[in-house]
Amino acid sequence: MARKRNILVSAITQTVVSVVVLSAAAGVFSLLWRTRPLPAKVDEPPRLRRVEVMKAVAVPVRRQWQGFGSARAIDEADVPAEVIAVVTGIPAAIVEGAEIAAGDVVALLDDTDFVIHAQIAARRIEELDARLEQLKLEEASWRTRVELAAEDVALAEADFARVKVALQRGAARDREVDQSRQRLLAAIRIEVNARELFDRIGPRRSQIEATRGLQEASQRLAAKNVQRCTIRSPLAGFIAAVDIEVGESVVPGRRVCRVVNLDRMEVPLRLPSSARLGVTIGDEVVLNARDASIPPWLGEVRRISPLDDQETRTMTLFVEISQDPHVPGWLAPGRFVEGRVISQHTEMRYVVPRRSLLGDRLLVIEDGTVRSRSVHVDFHIQGDFEQLGVDAEQWAVLAGSLREGCRVVINAARTLSDGLRVEPVSMNRDLGEARARRHADIGR
To answer: If both were cysteines, with which of 305, 370, 385, 405 could 420 make a disulfide (CB 3.0 to 4.6 Å apart)?
Structure first.
């Protein structure tokens, strides 16, 4: 019985203690609730989301087209050998990458054979000159002989005429007439032979002069080959390749070295065929490399191919740029570049930053409320429009027009839904400071 009494007393005690603790906790909570600080009431409307906007205005736009191509030098030369000879020397400065001036010696060839040929031709010319001098003397001698023979004929004719008159008078006999006639015929025969030999002087002179002309040509050719044994650069530039060694035999047409002038470069740029109606000679072109740290190159369209590629549906235009290869950042032959052709013609169009578009939807602010409008993009361009006050490089040119002065959301986001009330904030940034900040971020 005593044990049961102790258990009952213990249970009652625990119950009483629990009730007291709970009551104390409830009292503390009630006290804290009554003495809590209350927030001050402010009768202000809820704040609206701030959204950057720009005013829609028509700006002058120049159509642009994007293309790709590889650069090449306009002035370049594969310097060939022109004779069969052995390489006897190469200047120490003739190495790949070295700068070279027009007329600098590239290689020296053995010219011994050609020097001997020139000397042989010179001796033959001297021999022919001597023959011409001898022929001149013979011509004077034969001219005299012809003159004397002509006089003999004249005398024989006069004597024959007198003998015939004497025969008629009976003072001469037939025998004397025949003898006189024989003397006349002999004189005529001598004159004919002398004149024939004299007339041969002209053809003989022509033959010797022709032979002399051949020898002179042979001498000039030999002298020219001697000059060709000293190979020189035809233009100024840089050596791209050296293809010979000392002691090596070369033949006509073999490349000795390659020289490239980097002052003028050309890029065959491939554009969509649809660009043919818009591009013209003289259009500005901006060429960019894949490396953003390399500054762009400026050029212009010089030629346009009349043919389109049926497989790729592209056209080719040729862009020329001028540069100084001694200034860092020059365009190297063979470099693949992206070109942006900018038309010379301008037109007033509405443009928006590309980040303002959500697909084919454009967000505008009307009476403080976001509204989306369906738009059609005609083409995209790259550039700066300072009159719009927006720091952007990529722009979309709209096919239609916008209400003049309407406010366009610059950074479209999917969280900006139709009907959402916002606070428009006009863009009035200093574009110079913004671009400098952007370039500094790129440099980091």
So the answer is: 370
Measure the CA–CA gap between 444 and 215, rounded to whole angstroms: 75
| Cβ-based neighbours of 373, under 8 Å, separated by 6 or more | 361, 362, 363, 364
Amino acid type, 283:
D
Q: What does the alpha-carbon distance between residue 400 and residue 439 come to, in Å, rounded to a whole number?
A: 33
| Cβ atoms < 10 Å from Cβ of 57 | 15
State the pTM of this model.
Answer: 0.65
User: 339, 269 in Cβ contact below 8 A?
Assistant: yes
Structure tokens belonging to residue 248 = 């090596």
């530039």: which residue's tokens? 237
CA distance 31 to 392: 61
Rg (CA), the chain: 54
CA–CA dist 87, 94 (Å, integer): 14
Contact 106, 233 (CB under 8 A): yes
| Sheet strands (E) in 311-376 | 314-322, 336-353, 357-358, 361-366, 369-374
Query: 């361009």: which residue's tokens?
Result: 381
In 10 A of CB 107, how many CB atoms? 26
Assign residue 103 a region (left: φ > 0; alpha: ψ between -120 and 50; beta: otherwise): left
Q: Are 367 and 373 in contact (CB under 8 A)?
A: no
> Per-residue pLDDT averaged across 379-386, rounded?
85
| C-alpha to C-alpha distance for 243 and 255, rounded to whole angstroms | 7
DSSP secondary structure letter of residue 47: P
Residues 6 or more apart in contact with residue 360 via CB below 8 angstroms: 374, 375, 376, 377
**Residues forming a β-bridge with 257:** 79, 242
- Spatial CA neighbour of 61 closest among 287, 394, 344, 250: 344
For Cα atoms 299, 301, 305, give the angle at the middle one, nearest 5 degrees: 145
- For 253-303, how does the pLDDT look when each residue is reduced to its tens digit (9 = 90+)? 999 999 999 999 999 999 999 899 889 999 999 999 877 778 899 999 999
Least confident span in 116-125, 197-206, 299-308, 313-322: 197-206
> C-alpha angle with apex 379: 375 to 383, nearest 5 degrees?
110
d(CA 78, CA 25): 102
Kindly give, in sequence order, each residue whose CB lies less than 8 Å from that of residue 2, ignoring residues fewer than 6 positions away.
none
Are the beta carbons of 339 and 354 closer than 8 angstroms? no
